[in-house]
Amino acid sequence: MKPPANIEKYRAVCSGHRRAGYHNREENETPAPKLKRAIRADVPEIRQVVAEIKKKYPWLADTGDAGNANLSKIFSWLQDNDGQFDLPSVKVAVEVLLPELDSDPKYVPSQPPPTPAPPKPEQEKLESWQLPLTASKQQLHKASPEALKDYLRRAREAQKK
């Protein structure tokens, strides 16, 4: 008898060595896949649950290809975990699948309202002889002693505020 071209395979078969799974029927038989439970939900119910989920996760895609992919992932998870399509079950599914879910490409996060500008201090009503708190050096040199005393008193009060 002439040896085959693949001599290693011939030697392995002749010497009694078998490759794992080569001749073992038990290893080749895989268990039958577990039948998934059918989940039924009406379109209005799906929309209502998705709207509730969007309140917590506004960036989550719910339309287009990304939305269909997200719904498929959620339904698949619910089937694998014997869930049903109701709000508590879908919330759990979304929490678990959060890293895998697609975001809405059109979503723009809302900006917080701008902080109001601090109120401007009221302009003081000055007498004709009084100096403004923003007086220049030249105005201070020309001022009377009474005007300078008044200016210093109002400047100190303004610093305390």
Elements, N to C (H/E):
HHHHHHH
Mean pLDDT: 80
Shape: elongated
- Outline the biggest β-sheet: none
Task: Give the strand tally.
Answer: 0
Poorly predicted segments: none
Binned strand content: under 5%
**Helices and strands: which structural class?**
mainly alpha
Tally the helices.
Answer: 7
Cα gyration radius (Å): 40 Å
What percent of the residues sit in helical stretches (DSSP H or I)?
A: 40-55%
Cα distance, first to last residue?
A: 111 Å
What do you see in this structure?
- With 161 residues, the protein is an all-alpha fold.
- It is 47% helix and 0% strand.
- It contains 7 helices and no strands.
- The mean pLDDT is 80.
Question: Which tags fit this structure?
Answer:
single chain, 161 residues, mainly alpha, 47% helix, elongated
Secondary-structure blueprint of this entry?
Layout: H1 7-14, H2 25-28, H3 43-56, H4 64-80, H5 87-97, H6 137-142, H7 145-160
Helix pairs in contact: 4-5
Write a short abstract of this structure.
The chain is mostly helical and 161 residues long. The chain is built from 7 helices and no strands.
